Amino acid sequence: MTEGLKLIVIELNKLLETDYNLISFDSLSPESLLQVLVDVFHAFGAIDKLDVRENDPEETNALVMEALRKVQYRPAEDIDDPGAFRRGMVRGEKKLIHPILRWMFEHRERVKKAAYLAKFLIPLDLPPEAMSMPELGSLWAQYLETMNDFKDAHRAYEQSVHEGTQTRELRNDISAIETEIENVKKRIERTQARLDKVPQQELLLEAANSLRIEKERQKELLQQIDEQKQGLNRANLMHERLQKDLHNAKMSVQGATPQNLMESIIEETQVLEFMVQQKLPQELNQRRSEVQTLQEVIDEPNISRGDLQDLQQKIDEMSREIQRLVEVRLAEYSTQNDTLGPFRQQAAMVARNKEAAAEQLDQMTKELREVERQLQDRQRQLQETVGEVILRGEDLKQFVNTLRAKSNVYKQQRAELAAVKAEVNDLTQTLENLKSQDPSLSTALSQMSDDEVSSLGLSGAGLDGVGDVVEGEGGRRSESPINGRGMTELARLVDGLQRAVGAARERVTPLSQQLRPLRERVIELKDEMDSKKQTYDALIATLNAESATMQTKITETERAIRKLEQEWQELQLEHERSQLLLEKANEEMSNTGSGERVSLKETLSQQILEQETAIKRLSEERTTLLASKTDRAQQLEMWTDLRKLFEVKIRCLHERKQRGPGGTLSVSRGGAETFTLQ
């Protein structure tokens, strides 16, 4: 989504010469966004210049729809309601305008061509009454004939442009082929000149051809062996997976009994019966009512702003009337003694819980089907990408471990190859140093390359490879001078080194062939993992943000609901108290003059007097307590000091007892202390 928005902003700034960025463009108002769409249509030539703010919304919507028809735009597959699409375009919704802009910028040339052709190929909209006039009829026939001529001319123009492009391409191809033919001829001549100097050419060519054929056959056999091994591995993995599935199936039915199966089937049947007999008919009736409402909306003429205001006023009046009726009904229920009210409430609660459970079951079923469909799509894509076998669990771990082991082998062999290359570079440098020190060495090597080395190079390595080998051998034997040695010994050394290099190359070639597909597979898996991880991180971030927003909204709503319930309970209690007082007042008014009971006014006056007396008494007690606060604090302080004194004496007594005998301390009841020495 961000990439599409970035594309829209970049192309829009280029086309309209604006300076939008992602934030400013995404924060445009619906009216401004619709104006941007109209400006883009005008830039492509599909609509005339107009101002959305000054033009009528219905007229603007008609012009935009006509422009979409000119550029041959098709809405997304999930948009199946044309009326909703038109209303969304009038409101300037982002989810509709952003895909249109992205599609137009991605198909720029196609949109330009469609807008250009629409000016000449879309016929005029004439009423049927006008066609009955002879003059207009002849002009209409001439107009259609001119339109057909334009079609033929444009088709011929397109064909000529296409043929011109093909002609240029063919000329370029012919020039490239001629150049390649000349290069091949020169290479053949050089090769033929080299072969003329080699004795027994035919035998060597036959041997080289046979060697090439055998190598190709060996390569095919190795490829077949690899395919057979891969097929065997896939078959083994599939067999193991099927064995695990069979084991899981046996374990799942191990503890099952006919009674348990029958209970589960009965429960599932009851749920399905409820869905078929109650839930689905309700949803069907609801869909039918929605379809009928939409049909009525479609059949009605276009609604203006005044009609919308009238409908809003009617809706407000109906809402107030419904609120008044609800309050009246609640008041009637509160005054009557409804013994079945709790049972009705419980039945309504059970019905709501049942309906909620059915809704949840339906939603979970839809989600399960969607997840199964996505799983099948992913499995099919993975099967097309990887092969017939899809690895899971332990098989995937085993495959990863095998891949890791092969990767370690590849790294080790790559290190060995790097060491060999480093050694070759060292030998080459040594040979260059020897050539600079002894010019005769270069002359001897050049003469050998012209006469003898060409015969040695026909075994499969080529003249260039032999030259490198000669240089390597020369570097390897840098410790001893070569001036006194003959060409025969040098040829023998070169031949031995060539065989060693050929053996090393044959040993490395199959390993590199095995590592190449593994390396490509590792790169593909890494890219796929990175893309999936990015998608997963973006989805998690979006879900976390939406979850936090929804949680905040839920918390605020619950807090508001609790507050409203508390206020409602308080109002209900206040209403009940007021109702009780009103009933007592009515009874008192009806019994006025009888003198048999004390009036409500007298009762309330008596209660008020008692409360005032209690308040006055409590005030006097508070004053008394405040007046005696200082005395009580002093008394508390004295008692605290006395307690500390006794604690000190007791601690001293314990300390004397611990020090040993020296006397006896006796305390009488009056507080006198006597110490008797022993």
Please give a structural write-up.
With 678 residues, the protein is mostly helical. Helices cover 83% and strands 1% of the residues. The model is unreliable at 451-486 (pLDDT under 50).
Q: What proportion strand?
A: under 5%
Helical residues, percent: over 70%
Terminal-residue CA separation: 104 Å
User: Number of DSSP helices?
Assistant: 20
Largest sheet: 2 strands, antiparallel
| Secondary structure: number of strands | 2
- What does the average pLDDT come to? 76
Describe the global form. extended
Structural class: mainly alpha
Whole-number radius of gyration? 50 Å
The secondary-structure element order is HHHHHHHHHHHHHHHHHHHHEE
Query: Poorly predicted ranges (pLDDT <50, ≥5 residues)?
Result: 451-486
Oligomer: single chain
Spatially, the strands of the biggest sheet line up as 1-2
